[in-house]
Each structure stands twice: as structure tokens, then as C-alpha cells.
Amino acid sequence: MSEEDAESDEHGTSGTFDEHGSRTDGGRDDLEAVVAAVRERIEPDAEERDRLRTVADRLIERAETAATERCPDADVMQVGSTARDTWISGDRDIDIFVRFPPELDRETLERYGLEVGHETLPEGHEEYAEHPYVKGTVEGFDIDVVPCFRLESATEIRSAVDRTPFHTSYLQARLDDELTADVRLAKQFLKGIGAYGSDLRTRGFSGYLTELLVVEYGGFRGLLEAAAEWQPPVELDPEDHGQETFDDPLVVIDPTDPERNVAAVCAAENVARLQHYARRFLDTPRTEVFEPDDPGSLDETALHAHLERRGTTPVAVRFEAPDLVEDQLYPQLRKSLEGITTGLDDRGFDVFRATTFADDAAVIVAELAVADRPAVERHDGPPIHVRSHADGFYEAYADDPDAYGPFIDGDRYVTERPREFTTARGFLESDRLFDVGLGAHVETALTEEYEVLVGDEIAALCEAFGRELARYFEPRP
């Protein structure tokens, strides 16, 4: 929207707005008014900032004391969005990194790191990424105390966490108050459209990636205008490293590490989702897009109505979810989903669409265009003029009492042989399910026990997975 349009009544873009930034006069929302309303809602106020600062300073001092008692050359820094002032009101994460000199061996770093973590967070517990760290809660804030090496360059890292201090320093030098406010807008926008988070369940935009994009494009609006016109693969290299190539829909070379694509985890569908909503928002600004859309829960009546309307046959494999963190579980579920859908397709059941989700139980759902197959299947042999192969095919089936043929169709032998599975249930309940590519822990869980649901039987999933089923049967971008 031009400045002229933003300021002129005659173009229909001015008017009155309610407290949510939505127009009350029936016209389209004004982008600046919507942005101002959202900013007011998501920016931490002075009291919230003071509370966070007080807690962070106290814990940093405690961590510094514990760290330097063990290693005089150690230091402590706050990293992440609360260090860069790009956090959104309501966020409760304080990340404290304890940096040790590089000459310290890995085993000692881990031991010191845990000791410092427990002294900083006496009620905390240990978790493990590439190495262990301590996590806890203090006055409502979620605190991570993470050990890392203090290095001269991110290219020298020994684990992924070693990069994080470089990210903080890089962005602190480039973010001013206006860009910081725009980063909050961009993060909230991505949260609203369901594309924020670099965890392997979401596979969206990380906080660091979002901040780099806002800096690269000069603000929130610049990012949306650019994304609306992206032609993937999109390649950005903020520091002109020009050394690596990556096969991803979005490539943002890490300014601190030229060998890393910051957007590597970002799925193509989330890049496309940002493009879709960027276009819609620029065309018709709305505050609603900044809030996640809860589809509600699909009940059995609504599910049956969808199945009757669609005329497809859903099948589901339900089993106890492996005891893994989500970043380990979801890659295995997706691998298993791909293996199972390929197995169904290969047997002629024509997967229409498929998905997977989990809580205490895990489910792989495939919607089939074809639910039943004939008792026989066609098997084409080689052309008859390819004698060695043709003779072998003919001899293999000539005396098979269960096969029709071999006979000649065109220039080749053909036989019609009994089909191994005439129903998807038959395949899914057979040992042949384990011939497809399954995640290792998923395969173990299926070996122990699983249940196959077909057609209306998937209504049994509504109680635990009503929201996931609503997203599937009532899809939105």
C-alpha cells in the first residue's frame, strides 16, 4: 500500500478501528493500523522487561561465580531472543550460555557445565542435546544453562551450541529499535500461520532465521513483499560468503558459518505457507492472521459426514508412541509414513493423501482412492524378441496352475497371477508391512503391537486426535 493510499479517505483506506486493529466501518483494514495494534499487544511492557532482567541478572551472576570457581577463564553470556530484545510478550525463555576455553576437553566441559547448571538452578533437571545441560523454572521463566566452547570463529565449532553466541553477537550489532519491533511482528505472524519453530515436528522458521530475514529485507513489510514474490529455490547470502550450495527451497547462508544453511530444516510447505499469507495480508491486512487458527475438534458425526462426502476409504495404523523426544520421533514417523504409503501404492490402493500424528499413541493415516482390488493382477513380461528374458518369463509361469497365461499381448508375454493382497487391511495386518521402510523405533513398536482401523473405524481416533483430524479433513493453507 502506498503512502498516498494509507493517508487518503478517497481511496477507502482510512476509517475507524477497534482495539484489535480491525475496521469498524466495513472497509478493508489498513496495514499500518493493523501493525500498530499487533505491536501494542506483543511488545513486552516495562514491568515485564524488569521482571525478566531481574531474574536473568541474578542467574547470570550465580552462573559466573560457579563457572569461574572451576575455570577462571570461563565466562557467561545471555543468548537468544531475550538477549537481543526480540522476544514477544508472554515468552518465558532465558538462555544462559557458560563459555569455557577451547583447550578444555569435552568431558571436563560437560562435567563443569552440569555442575554450574545445578548451582545456578538447584531445582533444575538435566536434559541432553549434543551434550547435557540443565533446565529449570525460576519465577515463571524457563531457564536453560548450557555449556559451550568460547571460540574465535563459528567455523571452529565442536557442537551446534557453540554457534549460538556468534548468532547473538552478529544480530546485536545489526538490530536497531525499529528492526527489533519488526522481528517481533514477523515472529508473531509466523506463529499465527503455523510456520514458526525449527523443531522437527513443525519444520518452520527458527527465531534466528526470522531475525536474519527481517534484517536482510529491511523490516517486516519488506520481508512480506519479498516472500510474496519468491521463486524457490531462494538463496540469500548476507555476508557474501559464496562458498556452499544447498538443495533446499530456502537457503540463508549463516553469516557466522558459511558451511551452514540456517533454513535447512524449513520445509517447502512452510516456505509456501509464508508466501500464501504474505500475499493475502498485503492485499487485505487483518489482525486475525497473527493468531493461530484453532480448528476445533472433529467429532464422529462430522467425520462420518466427511467420509460419506468424499467417498474414500481411510486406513490407520495406531500403536504406542516410542519414548522419544519429538525431534527424534517425528522424523521416524515421517519415514514410516512414506514407507507405508509407498507399500499401499505399490499394491494398487492409490493413496489419496496421508498424515501422521502422535501423543501417547502414534497414528499413521492414509486415505485411499481404492480400497479393494481384484483377486488377480496383470504382470507384464519382456518383449518376445528379447529371447533370453522372454524364455525365462514364459517358463516361470507356463506350469503355474494359479496363473492365467502366459499369453501374448502386443509384442510381449503377459500373465495374470493371484494378487497377494486384495484389501489394504490385509497388507497392513501382514508381516509384509515390515518390508517397507520404517523408522527403527517405529518398527520396534509395531513389532510389539499395533491396530489397523479401516473406514468408519477411524472414528475411534476422534477423542485423542480430534484437532489433528479436523486439520486433515478441513484443510487450510
What would you say this structure looks like, in words?
There is one protein chain. This protein is an alpha+beta fold and 477 residues long. The chain is built from 16 helices and 15 strands. The chain has helices spanning 3-7, 31-42, 46-70, 81-84, 106-120, 164-172, 177-192, 207-217, 220-228, 268-283, 300-310, 326-346, 387-398, 424-428, 440-448, 462-473, and strands spanning 75-79, 93-100, 125-128, 132-138, 141-149, 234-236, 250-254, 257-261, 313-320, 351-358, 361-368, 376-383, 404-409, 412-418, 451-454. Strands 1-2-5-4-3 form a 5-stranded mixed β-sheet, sandwiched between helices. The chain has a 4-stranded antiparallel β-sheet with strand order 10-11-9-15, sandwiched between helices. Helix 2 packs across helix 7, helix 7 crosses helix 8 (207-217) and helix 9 (220-228) crosses helix 10 (268-283). Residues 9-31 have a biased composition (Basic and acidic residues). ATP binds at residues 81, 84, 167, 187, 196. Its cofactor is Mg(2+). Pfam families: CAA_C, NTP_transf_2, tRNA_NucTransf2.
| Name of the level-1 CATH class of the largest domain | Mainly Alpha
Gyration radius over CA: 28 Å
* Helical coverage, percent range: 40-55%
The CATH topology annotation of the largest domain reads as Poly(a)-polymerase, middle domain
Q: What's the CATH superfamily of the largest domain, by name?
A: CCA tRNA nucleotidyltransferase, domain 2
| Biggest β-sheet description | 5 strands, mixed
DSSP E strands, number: 15
Overall number of domains: 4
